[in-house]
Write the structure tokens for this entry.
Amino acid sequence: MSKAVTGGFRLSRVINAAGTMTSLGSSLVVPEAIEAAASIQQQFVKIDELQARASQAIARATGAEAGLVTACSASGMVLAIAATMTGLDLARIERLPDVTGLPSEVVVQAGHLINYGAPIAQAIRLAGAEVVVAGTAAQVETFHIEDAITEQTAAALFVVSHHVVQDGQTDLPEFIAICKARGIPTIVDMASEYDLRGAIARGADIAIYSAHKFLGGPTAGIIAGRKKLVQACFLQNGGIGRPMKVGKEGIIGTIAALEAWAQRDHAAIKAKEDCAIHYWLEELSSVTGLACDIHADWTGNPIDRLRVSVRPVEAGLYAWELADRLANRDPAIYVRDDLVEHGYFFLDPCNLKPGDEKEIVAAMRDILASARIQGDGLCASFTERRRRKLAAHLRWPD
């Protein structure tokens, strides 16, 4: 079995055609961030001073007044929600998650209450806040949001993600406008987005990003926004933020990743990704049982993916069986399969290493040819697949 040598021990080799997934290590870290994180390991620093430098870097990158590096984007969400309830009041900060006497409701559109690896609603409740749902899963009108806002509203949360319901939601500019008219701070979760400036430019009070996804930084999160709110986020480190603290390597690595992002040749990277997409399209469109087409990113990121639709009778496999057999190979090949119950998955080019695109094609051809010869596909329903994956999760670490 092929193994990657890491930290003196061996791990299974993974080909990532799924994208910036936390479960796979998110992304390939850029050399600048690796060097910065390594260089600080043998030094002592004033963390507050380092965070102040990070604030300057985040402000330059996002157009915000200030910024803060957190343990991850999920912790950034918790800290931002906490900040809207406590402000700069140190006694309130130490009292959380007890919110007695504080406005503590957070308004969220129903279609935004997703699971990103954990429920969005849980991140809100971790701060001590209460979730107030606006509208229904596929229909959120402006009057739903207006009706959800009361004297007890501390903040409103907007989630930008391919996981959210794509139809029937109130869009970001209108959402912000409604909240501003009522004096409610808006927090925008943009963990997996390229656009570092759009939310702030549209008037969001806080925007939250992942440092370790498209930025290619270390595991960390980024809070950007109004100075007073960011200060309040920072002060949460003396309260509920303490178990979520970020280290010196995460802070300086994030600064380096932001600076590298500003210098990155995005057009060249897009051209390289497009080459992989068109190679897959040409090679896989002729494979019996497959139909392929190119899809733009749901949320407007400048990346295309190849949608691979599986015709089960011709292929001899369901789409989820093909995805699972790819993942169980050596090397393991992971595809973007969150919509696989509809009979298709996506190949994402953003984290490929040289030659990966060819290995993926060869593996898919091999699996499909074997399934037609062996006749061992079309066995596991999607429901059975979900049960099997859950059972495997519950068996960890065995």
Observations:
- The chain is about 40% helix and 20% strand.
